[in-house]
Amino acid sequence: MKNNNNDKMDKKEQQLQQFVRQNEGKIMTSNEGVKISNDEDSLKAGDRGPTLIEDFLFREKMAHFDRERIPERVVHARGYGAYGEFELYESLEELTMAKFLNDTAVKTPLFIRFSQVAGSKGVNETNRDVRGFATKFYTEEGNFDLVGNNIPVFFIQDSIKFPDLIHAVKPEPNNEIPQGQTAHDTFWDFIANNQESAHMAMWIMSDRTIPRSFRMMQGFGVHTFRFVNKHGKSHFVKFHIKPVLGLRSLIWDEAQKLGGADADYHRRDLWENIENGNYAEYELGIQVLEEADEFKFDFDILDSTKLWPEEDIPVRMIGKITLNRNVDNVFAETEQVALHPGNIVRGIDFTNDPLLQGRLFSYSDTQLYRVGTNHQELPINRPVCPFHNNQRDGASRYIIDKDRIAYHKNSLADNTPYTVPGSKGGFVTYPSLVDGRKVRETAESFEDHFSQARLFWNSMSPVEKDHIMQAFSFELGKVQNISVRQQVVNMLGHISTELATVVATALGVEVPKVPESQVKKSSPALSLFNTKHSPKTLKVGVILESGFNGRETNYLLEQWKKVGLQPVIVHDELGVVKGTDGIELKVDQSFLTGSPLLYDGLYVGVSPNANENFLWKTKSFLIDTYNHFKPIGASEAAAPILESIGILGKPGVLVDQNPQTFSKEFIDAMTIQRFWQRV
To answer: Which residues are named in the active-site annotation (predicted)?
Structure first.
C-alpha cells in the first residue's frame, strides 16, 4: 500500500484531469469532432427560408441544450461542494477493519456536498432549513459515503413516511407557495399529527437551521452504524463532524435580509475562502457503544429521532477533514455527485434503524433515476481503487469492456473477475441476529416523543430559548388554519409549559393544559454557546472617508489580518480612498455594492464633518450592525457619530483611544461575535 500523501491526493486528481477540457484557444468542433465554420446561423432554404432538418450541427447543439438539466433532487436540491482530504489521528484497528481508519500515514481524498432540504435549486441560501452535510471518502477499498445533516436527529422513525414528510414540507400544490420554507399549514399539520417529530421541531426552530457558514456548521451521521474489527467484534457508532472555527449562526432578521442581499451567501463564502487559502477544517468524531450496552438507556439507540447525549457517550475525535480545493464545474461535480448511505467499506456496516434501512433503497434508486444507470462511472463518483464486475451496457456507459465474458461462474475467463473471501479483504456482512414475526409495527421503545425534546430545551441558553420561542411564533403565525396552530401548541405543552404559553399568547390560541415532560437533565454540548470560537476568516467592514488617519488605520488592519480577520474597505465610491501619511487603500465595496449584512463586524473611520450623504449611509450601516448584535469599532474622531445614534458605550461598541489596546479589544469582540446584552 502506498503511503506517500501527495501520491494519494494526486491519484484522484489525475483521474479527474483525464476528463477536464479547456476550450480557450481551441478550434470549435461538433461532439463528433467535425470542425464548425459557422455557429451563428442555422442551415436554411434561402437566407429568409425555413430551417432544414438536415442541419446536423443545429440538431446536436439544440438537442444537447434541451437536456442540459437533469432532474433536480427532490430534496437537497440547493447544494454546493468542495474537495479535500481526511487525516487519521490514531489507528482504530481495535474497532474496525476499514483501512482508511487504520493507517495514519494515508491521506484519504474526499468530497463534501452541503445542501438545503426543502427548497428548490434556485432558493436563497439563508432560509431556515435543515442543511445536508454529505461526505464521500475515496478510500483504497472503495467509496464510503457519510450522508448526514447538520442536526443529529430526524423528523420520522420509519422511512416509509418520508414521502409524506416531503409532500408536507414542499410548497403547497394548489398554489406552489411558499418556496423553501416551513412556515405554512401543511408542514405544521404533519408535525402536529406525527408527534415523533417533536424533537426535530425543536432543533429546526433553533439557530442551528440558520448557520453563519458551511465552515462553521456541525455535521452528524444521524443513524447508528456498526464498526466491525478483524476479529468479528461489533460496536455501535454514531458519526460527528465538528468545525474547527466553532459553531456560529445568523439571527433571524439577518438571515431574512441576507436572502435578498446575497442569495448565494453560503456558497460564495466557501468558494472565496478556499480560493484565498482559508481552508475549511473539521474534526471527525465517533461515539462508540458496546453491543452489550444496547438497551441500557432510556431511549432506543436505533431511533433516529433520538440522539446519544455526549455527556453519557463521549465523542472521540479521530481525524481531521480539510476542504482545500474548489470544483472546476459545479454541474459535472457537485450536481452529479451520487451520494448514498449504502456505500460502505469493509469494517463498517448497517444496523436495523428503520429510517436507515429505507434510505439504503431510496438513495440508490434516486441516483439511478437522476443521473443514470452508469452514474458510478462519472469522474466525481469513481472510486480511486480499481473496480471490475460483470455489469454491462446501460445509458451513458463510459467503460469500454474489451472482454467477451460478462457472467459468473465461467471457464472461458478462468472464472474471473473472481470473488475474494473475507479473510483476504472481501466484504462480509456482520452476522447480527435477526428474530421475530413479520409485522408492520413501531417498537414500543420508539414511543417516547417528548423526553429528548425537553432535554434539548433544558440545554439551551436564555438567548437560544428566546430565539426558539420567536421562531415558533413566526412560523405558526404564518399558518392560516387555527386548528393546526392549536394542535402544535398543544404538542409544545408536553415539552415545556413556558414555551407553549409564550407561543400560544403570540398566536392568540389557548394555552394547553397538558402534562409537561419531567425531564430535568440537560446536555451542554447541544448549546451553540458552549463551543470554542475563533476570529479567523470573519469579515470586518471598514468604512473610511477621504483623509482618514492613514498610519493608525494601517496598523489596525495589519493586526487584524495577523489573527485571520478579513477587512473589507468600504467607501462611497469604488477605486481607492486616500488617507493621511500617504496611505492609499483599495476600496473593496461601495455603500451600494456592500451591505452591513455581509460583515461580521464594523469599524468606522469617519468624522462628523463628512458630507451629509456619507454620514447618513454610515449611520445606516451602524444601526443594522448594532441591531444584529455585532461588534462595532470606531476611530476617536468617529465617536460623536456613535453618540448621535445612541450607541456610544453600549456592549460591544468600542472607541479607539489607543491603537495597541483597541486592536486587541476589537479582536476579542469579534471572537465573541454577538453582544446579546443589547436586548
So the answer is: 76, 149
What pLDDT sits at residue 7?
Answer: 60
Q: First CA to last CA across the chain, in angstroms?
A: 59
* Neighbouring-strand partners of residue 133: 114, 148
Query: Which residues are part of the catalytic machinery?
Result: 76, 149
DSSP state of 657: S
CATH number for position 554? 3.40.50.880
Please give the full DSSP string across 178-214, using - where no structure is assigned.
-TT---SHHHHHHHHH-GGGHHHHHHHTSGGGSBS-G
Q: Which among 50, 70, 658 has a CA at the least distance from the CA of 367?
A: 70
Return d(Cα 215, Cα 59) in angstroms, integer: 44
pLDDT at 4: 52
- Tell me whether residue 421 is exposed, middle or buried, using C-beta atoms within 10 angstroms of its C-beta: 0 to 12, 13 to 18, 19 or more: exposed
Q: Is the peptide bond before 173 cis (omega within 30 degrees of 0)?
A: no
C-alpha 400: how far from chain center: 37
- C-alpha grid cell, residue 332: 459535472
Neighbour order of strands in the sheet with 589-590: 589-590, 566-571, 539-544, 601-605, 632-635, 653-656
Where does a domain end: 377, 395, 421? 377
Rounded to an integer, what distance in angstroms lies between the CA atom of residue 43 and that of residue 209?
Answer: 53
Q: Which residues are annotated as a binding site?
A: 73, 113, 162, 359, 363, 370
How high is the pLDDT of residue 6? 59
**pLDDT at 8 (0 to 100):** 55
pTM: 0.93
Q: What is the CATH number of the domain that holds 519?
A: 1.20.1370.20
**What 3-state class would DSSP assign to 8?**
helix
Distance CA 629, CA 679 (A): 9
Positions of the chain with pLDDT lower than 70, given as ranges: 1-9
On whether both 256 and 123 belong to a single domain, the answer is yes
> DSSP E strands: which ranges in 60-158?
79-88, 107-116, 131-139, 142-149
200 closest CA partner among 119, 303, 315: 303
354's CB contacts (< 8 A; 6+ apart) are: 157, 158, 159, 302
DSSP 425-487: T------------------GGG---SHHHHHHHHHS-HHHHHHHHHHHHHHHHT---HHHHHH
**Residues spanned by the domain of 129:** 79-167+214-377
Question: What single-letter amino acid sits at 618?
Answer: T
- pLDDT for position 2: 43
Strands 539-544 and 566-571: parallel
Backbone angles phi, psi at 545, to 5 degrees: -105, 160
Q: Are residues 503 and 564 in the same domain?
A: no
Q: Quick one: pLDDT at residue 485?
A: 98
Nearest-CA neighbor of 382 among 349, 337, 335, 341? 337
Count of other CB atoms within 10 angstroms of residue 649: 11
Q: Does residue 206 belong to any structural domain of this protein?
A: no
Does one domain contain both 552 and 667? Answer: yes
Q: Which of 336, 353, 377 is the last residue of a domain?
A: 377
Binding residues for heme: 73, 113, 162, 359, 363, 370
Angle at 307 between CA 301 and CA 313, to 5 degrees: 80
Strand bridging mode 601-605 / 539-544: parallel
- The set of cell numbers assigned to 183 is 412556515
How many CB atoms lie under 10 A from the CB of residue 666? 25
Question: What CA–CA distances, in Å, run from 639 to 619, 633, 642?
Answer: 12, 9, 5
Give the CB-side neighbour count of residue 26, counting CA atoms within 13 A. Answer: 9
User: Does 415 fall in a domain?
Assistant: no
In a domain, 59, yes or no: no
Could you tell me the three cell numbers for 502? Answer: 409564550
The stretches of 377-441 forming alpha helices (DSSP H) are none
